[in-house]
Structures are given as structure tokens and as C-alpha cells.
Request: fold
Amino acid sequence: MSEGARLDDYEARAFEVGVEDEGRLGRNIALVLAGVAIGAGLALLLTPKRGDEVRDAIGRGYRRTIEGLSERAGDLRDRANELRERAHDLTDDLRERAPNLLRFARRRIAQRREG
Reply:
């Protein structure tokens, strides 16, 4: 078997293993989510609280989660704006320095050719 054929065979087997791993990952995630849903359902059925108390508790948890997610989204938005500003500053700096860097590089290349 030629080197190219062996490489093709190896790549094909590696791809098949990757596909199998992705299938297992999806199945495992689905099983975890199913377990969480079953556990939550059992907790609601077996809780000693009245229905309106449970609904209020769920609503409070939901509101806290949404507020937390909103805060995190705002933080991420602020961070992205900071990074965008820094990238803009770096681009401007590079535009200013590029002509000098080019001249320097050309001189160095000329010196090495001469030397």
C-alpha cells in the first residue's frame, strides 16, 4: 500500500471516529437534559409547598436569572466595545508606523545583500 493510500485510509478512519464522538456527545447531552427535567418534575411533585408558593418561587428564580443574564450581557457588550476601541487604536498606530517599518525593512534587506 502506498504512502498516499495509507494516509487517506488513516484520515478516513479519523473522520469516522470524530463523527461517532459527536453522536455520543449529543446523546449524552440529551440524557443529562432528560435527567434534569425528570428531577425537576419529581421535585415539584414532592414539594411540601402549595402550588402558588411554588409558582412564586419559580417566578423569583426566573426573574433573578434573567437579571443576571442581562447584567452579564451588558458586561460582555462593554468589554466588546473596549476591545473594538483598542483594535481601532492599534490599527491607527500601525497605519502611522507602516511606512517607517517598510523603509527599515528595505534598508535591512539591502544591507544583508551587500554584506
About this structure: The chain is about 95% helix and 0% strand.
